[in-house]
């Protein structure tokens, strides 16, 4: 990995553009939240539920980004650039195929799903109207994931930044125009937010596909490669399901406490999403560099880098926690003027601040283990933390009427258990298996 200073330059060279990609979308979502928030608590709650469902559906396929990065990074580290790019082609085929299925199935299930999550009241109607439009962006979101995945694997994080920002800028321009009927545009209300989202997703997806065409790669589908990606994806999907079960349950319980509670919960959750993706910038650098080092058979530099990035991530997370603690009064008012929503936001705030440093450790080590292809362990650890730490507290919160305090206490417990698990695994060194084939992990299970 070179000298310490050289490693620092390489890490930051990957992390800073990746940070731009990661924070651009949650910044836009917070902007979207602020635009829709001016319509009132009910549309805001509808956006919260509809956006959560689309996020849950699309982020189950995170193997298209994280799994593709792991496979591409190993091949890139072994000196096979064309094979690394080919991983992106096959991941994009999977993205388009799975995305099309999601659109059809979720259009059929949109009504019952929104009713279940929102508790069958007026929030469900608002959420469904947003979701039916937003679902058309699902294949585009997945193509963008795949594009980010292979480009990170070959250690190019600048172009994904440009592509993602181009799409989000268009969405940001269209969102207030369509939601509030500015500049002579039709006043679409909440649905305008969904239309703006899809338009921006079209731009980003087209740019990522164009990048593959520019590489002059073989663009035909290869069943063998896609099957291998799905095998790795199996564990990553199970891990994502554990995350989403937590967040879905939290929103479902918050909805039972009223529109103000679910809107406040989603506001704080979006801020947490912003923080976690910000911290993921260093984790992505770790994933790419650790994968490449192991692909080249360089175990000791991979281990050294793992702890180096964890230290940096912990310090960065502590600084973010201090900043949000200082913003206790000011920040919620930026996104909504509804007094009831602001009051409920304050209930969850200190839990949110407390889990930021915990996430600094957990996310960095997630990146290390993902780069090593240690997806089976991450699956088991995340499922265990959800079953033992989160789900009991979340449903007790409903039974005993603990409100957002109980919900966020459960999320905090979940993150603590995950941090302990990944730290112990990294310290054991069992993840550091050399070789260019990510499937080598299967032999170690």
From TrEMBL:
One Pfam family this sequence matches: MatE
Transmembrane segments: 12-31, 43-66, 91-110, 130-149, 161-183, 195-215, 236-259, 271-294, 315-335, 347-369, 376-396, 402-421
Keywords noted in UniProt: Membrane, Transmembrane, Transmembrane helix
Record lineage: Bacteria, Bacillati, Actinomycetota, Actinomycetes, Mycobacteriales
Family: Belongs to the multi antimicrobial extrusion (MATE) (TC 2.A.66.1) family.
One Gene Ontology cellular component: plasma membrane
Source organism, top-level taxon: Bacteria
Subcellular location: Membrane
Main location: membrane
GO molecular function, one term: xenobiotic transmembrane transporter activity
Record-given protein name: MATE family efflux transporter
UniProt topology in membrane: Multi-pass membrane protein
